[in-house]
Write a structure and sequence with these properties.
five-stranded antiparallel sheet; PucR_C-HTH_dom; GAF-like_dom_sf; GAF
Length: 594
C-alpha cells in the first residue's frame, strides 16, 4: 500500500513538474510549433501511450496534425480530415474529451474512409481526444493513441486536458502577436501615406513642416492644437471619440470669442459621416470648421477650428481647410502612438507583475533588471493590493490601477482574474486608503481595495490572502472600502489557509454535532438554525423564510437541542452564531480563489 502511494505521489510530482515546464515555455518568445511540440512531448512521456499528436482546424475546415511524438507514418501526418467526422469531430462539436477502446469498431461517430485506412496502416486502436478551446471556440484537439484496446482513466483525461489548455494558450498568444504585428504594419503604412500626401501640399509647406516637427519631437495633441491656432488664428479644440475635450488652444495674436457648444455634436457627426471638413457660422458670427480624426476605420475624435467670420470673405480659404484636414492625420498618428505606448506599458507592467507572482518568493536577477529598466525597485515592493468593483470588469479596473502604479513606481495588471497592484508602502493603511480614494473618484462608484504586506518577497501568498479576504469582505456585506487584511483579523481563520485547522476546530467544537447529524440523516438543521439567527430568533419570520410551517420549525429546533445536548438558547448562543457564520463564510474564499 505504501509503495503504491509513493508511486502515485512520484507520478503526480512528475505531472506537475511537466505542466509547470510547459507553462513556463509559454512565457518565452519561441515559435508556435516549437511550443506545441514541447507540449506533445511532455504529454506523450507522462501518459505513456504509443503515440501522441496535436491537430488544429485550418482555414479550409479540415483537421490536420501540427505536432506529434511516437512512431507515426509520414502519410498519417500529412493527412487532413473534415473537422466534422471521426472522434476529432465529436471532440470539437462537444468541446469535451472523448475516447474509444477500438477506433475501427466505434459506431458513435461518422468515419472518414481515408482516415480509417491510415489508422489501419498505423494500427491505431484505442484513441483519446481532448479539445483545444480558445474563448469558447474549439480550434483543435490533442490526441493520444495505443495499438491495442484499452480504457482511459479519469486521471489521464484530466492530465491530457491540462496540456491541451496550455496548447490553446500558446496558440492564442501566437494569434495575438500576429495581430499586433499586423496593426503595427498598418500604422506604418498609414504613416507613409500621410508623408506622401504631405509632400504634394506645397502651399502649406511651412505648417506641414511644423506639424511634422511636433511629431518628431514627441509632441502631444495639445502641441498640435497650439501650432494650428498660432498659424491659422482663432482657437482649436480637439475632442476624443466620446466628444470630451482633450485640448483647447487659442491664438495669442488673433484670438476669437468662445464659440457656442450648440450644434457642435451635429457638426462632428456630419464631419464623421462625410469624411470631409464641414463649416458653419453661429448666430454670434463665429465660424467653426470640424474635421474627423480617424485611423482606417477607427474613429478617434474630431478637430474643431473656430475663428471670427468675415462677411466679405465668403467661404474660408481652401488651403486652411485642407490644412485642418491634414492635421487630423497627424493627430491620428499621435493618438495611436499614445495609445500604443500606454498599451505596451500596461502589458509589460502586467507581465512583470505575473512573473513576480508566479516566481515568488524571491526575485531573479533578470526580473530585477527588467523592473529597474522601468525605474522600479523590485526589492521595495512590499504591499500587494487587490481591487474589486461590482460595475467594472477586472480588466478595466486594472487599467485604472496602471495609472496609480506609474505614479507610485509599482506594477499593476490582471492576475488570476483579479485587478492587482504591487507597490512600496511605508504605511499600509494609509496607502490602501489613498488607492481606494483615487479609484472611487475615477470610477464614480463603489470599489473594494484590500492590501496585504508581502513578507520576504512572497507576493503570491500576499495576493492569496488579499483575494480571499476580499471575498469575505463582500460576503459580509461591505462593498465600498479600502482596508488591509489586518482590519479583518476576526475573519483571518476563514481567508488564511494556514489557519484552516483553527477554523475546523472551532466549527467542530461549536456546530460539529449538527453537521454530523445533517450528513448522516440528510437533514437541514444547520440551515434551520442559521435562518433562525438571521431572523433574530423570530419563529414566525424564520418559518416564512424557510417556507415551512411553524410546527415543523419548532420540531427542528427541538431536534437541535437534542443533538447538541445543551440549552443552546442560553448556554452557548454566541458560540453557535459564530460557528454558523464562519461555516457559511468558509467556502467563499476558496471558491473565489478558484
Amino acid at each position: 500500500m505504501a509503495e503504491a502511494e509513493s508511486y502515485s505521489l512520484a507520478r503526480r510530482q512528475r505531472e506537475l513538474a511537466s505542466l509547470y515546464a510547459t507553462a513556463k515555455s509559454l512565457t518565452a518568445l519561441g515559435e508556435l510549433d516549437e511550443v506545441l511540440q514541447s507540449i506533445v512531448h511532455h504529454a506523450h512521456d507522462l501518459i505513456g501511450t504509443d503515440f501522441t499528436y496535436l491537430s488544429l482546424v485550418g482555414a479550409d475546415g479540415r483537421l490536420s496534425a501540427r505536432a506529434s511524438e511516437g512512431t507515426i507514418s509520414a502519410s498519417f501526418l500529412a493527412a487532413g480530415i473534415p473537422a466534422t467526422v471521426g472522434l476529432g469531430g465529436k471532440v470539437l462539436a462537444s468541446r469535451s474529451p472523448h475516447w474509444v477502446r477500438n477506433y475501427g469498431a466505434a459506431t458513435l461517430f461518422d468515419h472518414d474512409p481515408n482516415f480509417d485506412r491510415l489508422a489501419a496502416t498505423e494500427a491505431l486502436v484505442a484513441l483519446l481526444g481532448v479539445p483545444l478551446v480558445i474563448r469558447g471556440e474549439a480550434v483543435g484537439a490533442l490526441f493520444v493513441a495505443d495499438r491495442s484496446e484499452r480504457s482511459f482513466q479519469a486521471e489521464e483525461i484530466a492530465l491530457l486536458s491540462a496540456f491541451a489548455d496550455h496548447a490553446a494558450v500558446a496558440l492564442d498568444n501566437a494569434r495575438l502577436y500576429e495581430a499586433s504585428r499586423n496593426s503595427l504594419q498598418e500604422l506604418r503604412i498609414a504613416y507613409r501615406k500621410i508623408e506622401e500626401h504631405m509632400a504634394v501640399m506645397e502651399r502649406a509647406q511651412a505648417i506641414h513642416e511644423a506639424l511634422t516637427g511636433v511629431v518628431l519631437e514627441g509632441g502631444t495633441p495639445g502641441d498640435v492644437a497650439q501650432l494650428l491656432a498660432d498659424q491659422l488664428g482663432g482657437s482649436v479644440t480637439i475632442l476624443d471619440g466620446t466628444g470630451a475635450t482633450l485640448a483647447r488652444r487659442d491664438s495669442a495674436s488673433n484670438p476669437c470669442r468662445a464659440p457656442s457648444d450648440s450644434g457642435l455634436a451635429e457638426a462632428v457627426e456630419n464631419a464623421h459621416r462625410s469624411g470631409r471638413c464641414t463649416t458653419s457660422v453661429d448666430a454670434a458670427g463665429v465660424a467653426r470648421s470640424v474635421a474627423s480624426i480617424q485611423a482606417g476605420d477607427s474613429y478617434l475624435g474630431a478637430l474643431a477650428w473656430s475663428r471670427e467670420a468675415v462677411a466679405d470673405r465668403g467661404a474660408p480659404d481652401d488651403m486652411d481647410l485642407r490644412t485642418v484636414e491634414r492635421a487630423t492625420h497627424i493627430l491620428g498618428l499621435l493618438i495611436l502612438k499614445e495609445r500604443a505606448v500606454a498599451d505596451a506599458g500596461e502589458r509589460l507592467s502586467g507581465e512583470l507583475l505575473t512573473e513576480l507572482m508566479v516566481g515568488s518568493p524571491g526575485i531573479s536577477p533578470a526580473q530585477r533588471a527588467r523592473t529597474s529598466a522601468r525605474n522600479i525597485d523590485a526589492d521595495r515592493l512590499n504591499l500587494v493590493l487587490v481591487a474589486d468593483s461590482p460595475t467594472l470588469s477586472s480588466t478595466d479596473l486594472s487599467r485604472h490601477l496602471q495609472g496609480i502604479a506609474r505614479d507610485r513606481s509599482g506594477l499593476a495588471g490582471e492576475h488570476l482574474g483579479r485587478a492587482t497592484m504591487i507597490l512600496h508602502s511605508a504605511d499600509d493603511d494609509q496607502t490602501v486608503a489613498e488607492v481606494h480614494h483615487r479609484l472611487r473618484r475615477a470610477l464614480g462608484g463603489a470599489v473594494v481595495v484590500v492590501g496585504e504586506r508581502a513578507a520576504d518577497q512572497d507576493w503570491a501568498r500576499a495576493f492569496s490572502l488579499a483575494s480571499r479576504c476580499s471575498a469575505v469582505i463582500r460576503a459580509i456585506g461591505h462593498t465600498d472600502l479600502g482596508a488591509t487584511t489586518g482590519r479583518y483579523a476576526l475573519y483571518a481563520m476563514v481567508f488564511d489557509p494556514e489557519r484552516v485547522r483553527e477554523l475546523d476546530r472551532f466549527i467542530t467544537g461549536s456546530i460539529g454535532p449538527l453537521l454530523d447529524y445533517d450528513q448522516r440523516r440528510g437533514s437541514n438543521l444547520v440551515e434551520t438554525l442559521s435562518a433562525y439567527y438571521a431572523q433574530h430568533t423570530n419563529v414566525a419570520a424564520t418559518a416564512r423564510a424557510l417556507h415551512v410551517h411553524v410546527n415543523t420549525l419548532l420540531k427542528r429546533l427541538d431536534r437541535v437541542g437534542s443533538v447538541l445536548g445543551v440549552d443552546w438558547r442560553h448556554d452557548n448562543d454566541l458560540e453557535l452564531q459564530l460557528g454558523l457564520r464562519l461555516h457559511q463564510l468558509r467556502g467563499i474564499p476558496a471558491a473565489q480563489a478558484d
